[in-house]
């Protein structure tokens, strides 16, 4: 009888340990499009960009959490060619972000999710003048929205993979990315 009681208590403690942790650490890389809006001092410039993103998420509920992260991006290959035409080159951005996270479970490991929050960001780029070798380096900082939607898959080991669309306006730069990421629930 004692052996049965010890086994029963042991099984109960295993279930307590098997509960999902609220802590998730992850990162992603992506490729997308950027468009620097036109102003009086220079033409608009579009092109592609590469981005990297790391984050920590705390899930206070099964389907809701809060996320803090850091992102950074710069122009891609096509941006080099559009920079020749528009004379805007070396577009780089980075920032810290905080977002509310919500997910809809499609199955035990399969989910759709959305993020909505704010980013404190920095933007830098160079503006050249036609017929001149003079280049002005411009740096600005500000606060903007951060939004993302995606699909994720989490394995029993705690490792997850995801694909997401990000919309990140960075002051006068509008960035839209498709990211592929990996995360770990610990």
UniProtKB/TrEMBL annotation:
Going by the UniProt record, its keywords in alphabetical order are: Signal
Q: Which residues form a coiled coil?
A: none
- Pfam families reported in the protein's UniProt record: OMP_b-brl
- Give start-end of the signal peptide: 1-18
Q: Does the keyword Signal apply?
A: yes
**What residue stretches are annotated with the Outer membrane protein beta-barrel domain?**
4-186
Q: Give the protein name, as stated in the record.
A: Porin family protein
Q: Which SUPFAM superfamilies match?
A: OMPA-like
